[in-house]
Each structure stands twice: as C-alpha cells, then as structure tokens.
Amino acid sequence: MGSSISPNNASLECMAERRTNLKSKPEFPHLFQPCKIGQMILTNRVVLPAMGNNYGTEDGSVTDRQIDYYNERAIGGAGLLITEMVSIDSPTGQRGSHQLRINDDKYIAGLSRLTQQIHQSGAKMAIQLCHAGLLAASDKFALQPVAPSPVEYFGHKITQGLTINEIEAIIRHFVKGAQRAEKAGFDGIEVHAAHSYLLAHFLSPYFNRRRDDFGGSTEKRSRILLEIIRRIRQSVGQNIPVWCRMNGTDFGLDGGLQIGEAKEIARLAEAAGSAAIHVSCGAYGMYFGYNRAQMGQPPGNLAELAAEIKKVVNVPVIAVGRINLQLGEQLLRERKTDLVAIGRGHIADPQIIKKASEGRIADIRPCISCNVCVDDLTVLDLTLHCSVNACVGKEREYSLNPALKIKKVLVVGGGPAGMEAAITAALRGHEVTIYEQQPTLGGKLILAAKPPHKDEIKPLNDYLISQVNQLGIKVKSGKKATLASIKKFSPDVLILAAGALPLSLKLPGIDGDNVVFAEDVLSGRETGHNVVVIGGGLVGCETAEFLLQQGKKVTIVEMLAEIANGVGHSFKTPLLNRLTDKAAILTGTQCKEIGKNSVVVNGKFAQDQMIPADTIVLAVGAKSNIGLLISTQAFVPEIHVIGDCLEPRRIINAIADGHRVGLTI
Ligand SMILES: Cc1cc2nc3c(=O)[nH]c(=O)nc-3n(C[C@H](O)[C@H](O)[C@H](O)COP(=O)(O)O)c2cc1C
After folding, report:
1. Given the CA of residue 192, which atom of ligand 1 is nearest to it?
2. Ligand 1 neighbour 56 (Cβ under 6 A)
3. pLDDT value at residue 55
4. Which CATH number is correct for 408-502+623-664, 3.20.20.20, 3.40.50.720, 1.10.3730.10, 3.40.1160.10?
5. What is the CATH architecture assignment of 10-378?
6. How would residue 25 be classed by pLDDT, with cut points 50, 70 and 90?
7. How far apart are the CA of 277 and the centre of ligand 1, in A?
C-alpha cells in the first residue's frame, strides 16, 4: 500500500506561495512539496514535533515566552508545528511542573493567542494531547501514578490497574481536550500514544496485562486509543484532522511492542479515523533515550519503523528521529515517509527550513544531539535551553539590535565562547578581532570532538568558524595574546575567552614523564599500553574511551562513588554501558602515589593496591585562565570574562556567555 498525497491541486501550490521566502531549492524538491493531512493543507513536509519546554505558567497556561518560542519556529518555515504534550487531566496525567494543560475551559483563551500568532506567521499548528500515566509528576503532587495494569517500573510501583470507569473518564478527558483545542483554533490534533506514557502502555503487551476489553489481543490493547480517535473524530469538525503518535517498537523491552504488531495497530488507528501516523519508539535499558537519540546514534534511527508502517496504511506517515535535511529529502524521495519531523534541529536553529529554502545550508546552526535540552527538562525540570543556541526561550529578549556605538572589540580566545561573542558583536556592527594562540579556531571544541561518538561537535565548530569568516571578523591565529599586544591593539572592549588550564594533583611522582593531561592525549600524545586515568568525570571517561578505541588497557580511578558524575542522563547511560565491560573502574578510590610503571591507590576494598601503568592521564578538572585580567584592567575601558575562562563549564555555558556579552557591549 502506501499513500499518495502528492500536490494535486492549485490551492496547495497557492498556499506554498504564500509562505514568504520558502521556495523549494533543487537539493530539497521533496521537502518543499506541499501536502495534506486530512483536510489540513501544509506548505511543506517538515514538522516541528512535540517538545516540552516548561515555559508555561505553574497552572499550565500559555505564556508570551512560549508564544515567542513557537512563533520563531513558525516564521522559520516548518509546515506544521505540534505543541509540546498538553495534559488532558491534571494532576494525574501531568508530567512537567510547567507543562501546558487543557483540562479546563480556562485554558482556551491562552491557547487561542498561541494559534492566532502561529497562523499569522503562516504555519499550521496541531496540539498534542497526552496523559502521562506512569511518568506523571506524581511525587510533586503526592499522587499514585496510573497504568493499565500492575507494574513496577521507573521507580514506581503500581499495584492496581485502572478500572473501566477510570478508563472511560480518561477517554472523556481526551475528547473534552480535543473540543477545547478546536475552540482554541488548532488545525489538528495529535493523540500521544508513544514513548512511555499512558496510551503507549496500553498498546504495549509488556505493560498491558489486562484480561478485559482493554487488554489481551492487539485489538483490545488498542481499544482505548481507537475509542479516543473515534470519539474525537465525531466531536470535532471534519476539517480538523486527528491522528496518533505511536511506537513502532519498544526497543530494549523483552515482551514489549514489536513492529509487526505496531503495523496492525497503525491499520486499526487508520480505520478508526487517524488521519496520519506519527512513528516514534519506546526506549528502555540499553536503548534508553533512543526516541531522542544522542550523538553517536545513527541519523534516522527510527526511519525504518516509519517505512514499515507506511507499507500498510494509506494515510500520511510522519517519520522522526535524528533526521537532518538531507536525510529527510532522501526518505521522502524513497517514499519511506510522507512527512519528516525535525525536533532538536529546530531548537538549535528555528530558521532551519527558511535557510534551506534559501540555499544557506552552511548558515544553519547545527544541533549536536547532546541532549542537554531534554535531560535538563525531564530530569531537572528546568525550562528548555540549548547548548548551541542561547536564544531558545529568550526570542524576544535576545533579538539582535544594532550597536548604538561601534566599538573596537578584541576577543582573546577563539573557542566556542570567544567565537559566539565575536559573531554576535559583529552582527551588531562592532569591529571585531580574535586572537587565538593555536593555529586554528575551535579551542576545546576540537578536543571535545575527538573521543568516540563525539564527532557531531565538529559541525558546530565548522559552523562557528564559517560565521566568523563570513562576517569578516579578523582572526590572528597562532599568536598568544600578551599584555604588550593587547596594549598595542588598544581595544574599546576586551573579551577574555582564553579557556581553562588543566588542574594537577599534589602526589609523589606527579612530575614524572609518564604523567600527562587528558587534553594532551586527545591532542594526539602517545601513551603506553597500560593507562591509568585519574578522574572519572566526563573528560576522564571520554579520554578512557578514546584510549580503549586504540586498544589500550585502561583503568579509571575515581574518588567519588560513581563515574560520569554530573553527566546528562541520556548521555550517561550509554557511556557507562560502553565503558563498564571494557575498562577497569575503581570508584571510591584515591591515587596515593605514582611510580615509574605503576600507581598506588587506596580504595574502599583495598589499601595500597598497585596498578601497572605505563602512562597516567590526569583528568581532575580545570581552572580559569584569567592571567590577563588584572594586568589589562588599567588600560582597557571595558573587559568581559566568559566561557571556561570565567569558570570551566559546559558548551552551553560557553555559548550562553558569549552570546550575552556579544549582545550587551
Ligand atoms: C526537549 C524535548 C522535549 C520533548 N518532549 C516531547 C513531548 O512533549 N512529546 C513527544 O511526543 N515527544 C517529545 N520529545 C521527542 C521529540 O518529539 C522527538 O521525537 C525527538 O526529539 C526525536 O526527534 P529529533 O531527533 O528530530 O530531535 C521531546 C524531545 C525533546 C528533545
């Protein structure tokens, strides 16, 4: 089977024309084809999928910040925007503390403001309706989360499945939510039956062990979803399409949903009135986070699931999962999907589609799939932010204004903080020069891209360098900034972004030739076969992985109770999985002494344990490189210290510092 939704009438073409500057470029003819979901006409085949942002108020209402965030992406060209998951029942079905809600008429006004704005900007907007089930923020509300049947998972113990009456009430909540969404002006309704939320658990044979009308056979497990689709279909206007997002597979879950059954569910959903099928996945254990896979996972990691579903339905299929523009074009060309959703790529650059339509591919700020966005949102309950785009959630506040007075700006250090500051300042009209002591720009980004699974850092570095070049920022590389050179340059503004210096330890043997810093190793310094890495933070773990890849025997010595402390949730699990079998990991252990061919450590189980070591790699942190600050204060009128130079932190902090200073000088 497979759908045929190619542009077939003049009105579609007409709609496409109305979106300013969104002409199809020869390299993306399929992406820029208009299409339809039900009666809803879309100007292109790119979807902004649902992504939580926590920008709502505490009671779940829309804020101006949220409208600005979505609007920026509507202006940026996506054909269809889907809201973050909106709670149909609160608090039982609510996930984030500031998640949007639609469980009361009072939310209609705010949601209407959102749809009106998006329509003015020329895009369509659908709402994603969700019940969070097991993942509801139950601890916050002191509530027992709900599930189809008793289960122990995600630290929650459910002793009783939902009763039939409770299921009926949930179906009614979805329908009421859809009716309110129609009143609020949404163009489409997506029922969230994917990931690890309530409806996905009904569909999954692992989670749904019921033996009544809502469990057992595929049809019965699908019943709640089918009822929701049918009843919403009956209660909202025909011009509003209703569809579902569902898992193509429960990756990593023995006894979970498999693609064969998912295809059957997709067919049932279509028969119930689903106007499209949006295919994501459930992700557990080793696959944790696979439905928003981090760097190192293959691009288009879920595309084959969409392709399989497309074989059995006639309605449009939406594929998602690390799809970039080129891959999206290819998947459409190969008819593996009808639309492609680009999530994090839209967080990183809201203008991704507009830039593609203008042939400005090199100007697209690349998402590096570091998952700071989703980890900080879901684990720490923070508002959405992004490592590479400091403007996320600050669209209005950070709009670029020309400088009132053009200044001569000197940036010392061409790493991410320095380049971002230079670019932002130059965009505002300042005259900017960068001094970089290494032969090339990039700073720590160059080393950060070296360990396995980290190559996606490189496109970020390439992007920043290309922007520096395009803006005509002068770069003096291979030149260490000195007091004399800065004095001679005589800047109005000095931005110190000289990074950080690695910390050492006070230990017998620390000055030996066999002791090196992690950054030396990542820069290419040879080590012996037996390597002990002291420090099991992110840098230590990644350097260990880098060495393991070269066939070295690696021991990680970490004084804390676990390694990879402070590493984002979705990054940490795969990192630990990869390291656990390959490296010897000594936690709760301190290095006492370094010898010529060994180190001596004291651990929780053994004192004075000797470990053979040809090379000892120090990865014990870094300190700010602010040597130039005091000496330049006397003669530079305005000085800013940013990035690791201010305090060693993550890429997100470097870019945020650089952008903020570039905007304020
Ligand atoms: C910050 C963040 C929040 C998300 N929130 C939701 C959500 O509310 N509902 C949903 O169905 N998926 C959610 N997702 C998953 C995305 O819709 C998408 O499937 C995923 O990011 C993979 O697409 P990408 O590789 O293009 O980012 C979220 C993802 C991210 C990164």
Report:
1. 11
2. no
3. 97
4. 3.40.50.720
5. Alpha-Beta Barrel (3.20)
6. low
7. 16
Q: Where are the domains of the chain?
A: 10-378, 408-502+623-664, 515-620
**Residue 441 near residue 466 (C-beta atoms within 8 A):** no
The pLDDT of residue 16: 40
The candidate with the shortest Cα–Cα distance to 362, out of 440, 477, 469, 442, is 469
- Average pLDDT taken over every residue of the chain: 94
Backbone angles phi, psi at 601, to 5 degrees: -125, 155
Structure tokens at 278: 């949006």
280 close to ligand 1 (CB < 6 Angstrom): yes
Mean pLDDT to the nearest integer, 135-140: 79
Q: Which atom of ligand 1 is nearest to the CA of 341?
A: 26
* φ, ψ at 424 (rounded to 5°): -65, -45
Categorise residue 273: left if φ over 0, alpha if ψ from -120 to 50, beta otherwise: left
Domain 515-620 belongs in CATH node 2.30.30.240: no
pLDDT one-digit tens code per residue, 431-445: 999 999 999 999 999
Is 487 a residue whose pLDDT tops 60? yes
Q: Provide the residue type at 408 as one letter.
A: K
In 475-510, which positions are buried (b, 16+ CB within 10 angstroms) versus exposed (e)?
beeeeebeeeebeebebbbbbbbbbbbbeeeebebe
**Residues paired with 242 in a beta bridge:** 189
The reply to whether domains 408-502+623-664 and 515-620 share a CATH topology is no
Residue 568 Cα to ligand 1 midpoint, Å, equals 16
